[in-house]
Amino acid sequence: MDGLTPAENRELETRLQKRQVKEFMAVFGNLVDNCFQSCVDDFTSKALSGRESGCISRCVTKSMATQTRLGERFAELNAAMSAEMANR
Amino acid sequence: MFGLGRAKPTSAEKIAAIENELKVVAEMHSRMIKVCTSKCIDKAYREGELNKGEGVCLDRCSAKFFEAHQTISEQLQKEGAARGFGGPSM
């Protein structure tokens, strides 16, 4: 692919930033869904119990650790896959 | 313009192509996280940290995910071609 002009680069930057915001919102949404699903099951009250809150907090921390680890693996694997496809 | 090949891509096309490629990669990333979380992480959330077993499981899950992606992609192309489907290479 030909290189991009500075103007094209700026346009790309803008688009990517928008995309990043969208992706963050998606991650946030998945986190809420996932942690709620896993941790909340007691509807005898309308407030989160201590147990549920603790679970949610641990769920968030663990989910972020998971994202970090998988992010690293993904970058390695993606780079390897791209290199392998380029050499075919 | 007779005899010339494909016209040069416009600015918009170039940018869209790059954006699209990144989109594909980002989607794969997101699916991998969903699937490996579901396969490796205990939903009881007893601790806030990844334990060793979970960590190793995530590493192996991501490697297998990529391998499965490639295997499926290749098989799909083979079988698709045999059945007469076209399709972009993945």
From TrEMBL, chain A:
Alphabetized Gene3D superfamilies for the sequence: Mitochondrial import inner membrane translocase subunit tim13 like domains (1.10.287.810)
GO molecular function: metal ion binding
Keyword entries, A-Z: Chaperone, Disulfide bond, Membrane, Metal-binding, Mitochondrion, Mitochondrion inner membrane, Protein transport, Translocation, Transport, Zinc
InterPro entries referenced in this protein's UniProt entry, alphabetically: Mito_inner_translocase_sub (IPR050673), Tim10-like (IPR004217), Tim10-like_dom_sf (IPR035427)
Tree of life domain: Eukaryota
Any one biological process term the GO annotation gives: protein transport
Tim10-like domain mapped to chain residues: 16-76
Pfam families linked to this entry: zf-Tim10_DDP
Record's subcellular location: Mitochondrion inner membrane
Main function: Mitochondrial intermembrane chaperone that participates in the import and insertion of some multi-pass transmembrane proteins into the mitochondrial inner membrane. Also required for the transfer of beta-barrel precursors from the TOM complex to the sorting and assembly machinery (SAM complex) of the outer membrane. Acts as a chaperone-like protein that protects the hydrophobic precursors from aggregation and guide them through the mitochondrial intermembrane space.
Family statement drawn from the similarity comment of this UniProt entry: Belongs to the small Tim family.
Quaternary structure annotation from Swiss-Prot or TrEMBL: Heterohexamer.
Free-text note regarding domains: The twin CX3C motif contains 4 conserved Cys residues that form 2 disulfide bonds in the mitochondrial intermembrane space.
This protein's name: Mitochondrial import inner membrane translocase subunit
Organism: Podospora fimiseda
TrEMBL record, chain B:
Annotated localization: Mitochondrion inner membrane
Main localisation: mitochondrion
Membrane-related topology note: Peripheral membrane protein
Keyword Cytoplasm listed: no
Record keywords: Chaperone, Disulfide bond, Membrane, Metal-binding, Mitochondrion, Mitochondrion inner membrane, Protein transport, Translocation, Transport, Zinc
Highest taxon of source: Eukaryota
Annotated ranges, domain Tim10-like: 16-78
An individual GO BP term: protein transport
Entry keyword Transmembrane helix: no
Matching Pfam families: zf-Tim10_DDP
InterPro entries associated with the record: Tim10-like (IPR004217), Tim10-like_dom_sf (IPR035427)
Gene Ontology cellular component terms for the protein in this record: mitochondrial inner membrane
GO MF, one example: metal ion binding
Assembly description: Heterohexamer.
Stored PANTHER family: MITOCHONDRIAL IMPORT INNER MEMBRANE TRANSLOCASE SUBUNIT TIM10
Domain-level remarks: The twin CX3C motif contains 4 conserved Cys residues that form 2 disulfide bonds in the mitochondrial intermembrane space.
Family indicated by similarity: Belongs to the small Tim family.
Record function comment: Mitochondrial intermembrane chaperone that participates in the import and insertion of some multi-pass transmembrane proteins into the mitochondrial inner membrane. Also required for the transfer of beta-barrel precursors from the TOM complex to the sorting and assembly machinery (SAM complex) of the outer membrane. Acts as a chaperone-like protein that protects the hydrophobic precursors from aggregation and guide them through the mitochondrial intermembrane space.
Protein name according to UniProt: Mitochondrial import inner membrane translocase subunit
